[in-house]
Amino acid sequence: MDYQVFISFKNTDNGTDTCDKKFAEDLYRYLSEKGIKTFYSNVTLLEFGESAYKDVIDDALDEVKMMVVLGSNSEYLTSKWCKYEWHTYQQNILSNIVSGSIITYIGDIPLSKVPTALRHYQSFSMNKVSAETVGEFVLRAIQNQPRNESTESEESDRIEVSREPTSPEFTIKRASYYDSTFKGEYKRLKIQGEAMRPSDMMGVNYVKEKLKDKDTVYILDAGCGYGVVGRDRFADFPNKVIVGIDISEEVLEKARQLNDDPNAHYEQLDLLSEDFEDEMEMLMDKYGIDNFDVIFGAYVLQHVKDPLKALRNLRSCLKSNGYVIFRQSDEGTYISYGDNNFVKKLCDRYLKAPGIDDRFIGRKMHHYLESTGYTDIKVFGNFINTSEMNYDERMSLYRMRFSLRTMYYKKELEKDPYNIDIKNELEWMTYALDKLEEIFGSPSFWFGETMLVSVAKR
Questions:
Q1: What is the domain count for the chain?
Q2: Which residues 6+ apart lie within 8 Å of 382 measured at CB?
Q3: Do residues 413 and 276 share a domain?
Q4: What integer pLDDT is reported at residue 335 of this predicted model?
Q5: What integer pLDDT is reported at residue 145 of this predicted model?
Q6: What is the arithmetic mean of pLDDT over 320-327?
């Protein structure tokens, strides 16, 4: 992370936030707004045990250039973790492990009550000096020190596409923060697409048999993303026209680049548009389509603000006796053993993430479809599990199912970069996912889930 400043303070006292925490938060916000990478102790990591918390602290102490020790009273300065932090950092300095310095930001504590090791450092009074003033001092002290900047772009895993200015008319309020252009998401979607093929084909083959007498089958891939899944699932349909729609022009541009099928087309359209029927009619006129025989969607309805409205809109462009096929997840189908209930704990925590999508929509699909006028509803279930998976297959399942789970916190931090609660949750989830990845690699760990594919007719 290349932290530059470490803030050491006592976070809680008998389960209650200390007054020092407010000073620490103000200092953290000031330094972060000035571009200083600041370590702020995340006590939620103690849930993984003291060794985990200590590892995170030690890593930070090995690189920071300055430590600010806060303490409104002497007991807080000598509390277990606060003392461990400043004592370890002082030893790192004395041992030439780091080239750094310490300042103290303390209350009205008699000098005799200040730990001897801290008495000779530059000190500021909490009662006389604001956190911003301390921050200004820290900033001046380190602004001429060299910083280790990563030479690898943070965008290295994103899909390379041109970025045209977004039209102000296309400002959409989405239900979740999901972003298919997020770093690493294209790779994860490829893994997911391959793994979900057997599940999807249960619904696709059922519909294919129903439509076997049609000369040409018109297919709408709703929320198509990069278009790869839709083209693969309907590759065996002898005469078909696929129209993929998605809210993101960025992924659609890549879909067009990847497309080698002259009968596949990709257009920008919002499933919740107030003018959906008119916009869809113009799109269908463009390709000479009256209505669609099949509408396919993979993990799309869980991300929209109003799934019922999306289903009603889609029904308006589906032929009479046409079919919809939706693959949706449901974390209620997750079962595991050999992890001391760790998967459940992580998933429960994840449900509190900002901008989270509906993780239990799979069980709701029958009701949603029936409520919006669809008939002959069938729900296919495909159980996948780690029993016969080798190590690489286990890692693929882990990446497909869990690796995305830091995205929602990162997207929230883009809106509010100095939100300490979200920062702490991101650190907790990052650490938890590292531990879960280790668990998935163990042959004694077992995980399974049921993929749900819903099919219905208009």
A1: 2
A2: 198, 199, 202, 450, 451, 453
A3: yes
A4: 96
A5: 58
A6: 96
Flag whether 133 is in a domain: yes
Domain final residue pick, 119, 142, 165: 142
The yes-or-no verdict on residue 155 having pLDDT over 70 is no
* C-alpha separations of 320 from 275, 373, 434 in Å: 22, 12, 49
pLDDT for 336: 97
Give, rounded to a whole angstrom, the gap between the first and last alpha carbons of the chain.
53
Q: Facing residues of 244 across strands?
A: 221, 266
Among 21-25, 255-259, 421-425, name the one with the lowest average pLDDT: 421-425
Q: Is the pLDDT of residue 127 over 80?
A: yes
| HSE (side-chain half, CA atoms, 13 Å) at 402 | 28
Q: Which range is least confidently modeled, 109-123, 149-163, 232-246?
A: 149-163
Q: What is the DSSP string of 336-398?
A: EESSTTHHHHHHHHHTTSTT---TTGGGGHHHHHHHTT-EEEEEEEEEEESTT--HHHHHHHH
Secondary structure class of 292 (helix, strand, coil): strand
What's residue 409's pLDDT? 92
Please tell me the distance from the alpha carbon of residue 96 to that of residue 79, in angstroms, as a whole number.
Answer: 26
pLDDT score for 144 = 64
Q: Please write the tens of the pLDDT for every residue from 239-265.
A: 999 999 999 999 999 999 999 899 999
Query: What HEC string does 64-81 produce?
Result: CCEEEEEECCHHHHCCHH
Amino acid present at 434: D
Residue 45: pLDDT above 90? no
Kindly state whether residues 77 and 123 are assigned to the same domain: yes
Q: Are 187 and 242 in a shared domain?
A: yes
Q: Is residue 218 a part of any domain in this protein?
A: yes
Q: Look at the chain and count its residues.
A: 458
C-alpha 258/C-alpha 106 separation (Å) is 60
| Token pair in block for residue 425 | 């949750």
DSSP 102: E
Same domain, 204 and 116: no
Residue range(s) defining the domain that contains residue 239: 176-457
Q: What is the DSSP string of 421-456?
A: HHHHHHHHHHHHHHHHHHHHT-TT-EEEEEEEEEEE
User: Among residues 224, 365, 357, which one has the least CA distance to residue 302?
Assistant: 357
pLDDT at 171: 31
Q: Are 246 and 177 in contact (CB under 8 A)?
A: no
Residue with tokens 């252009």: 181
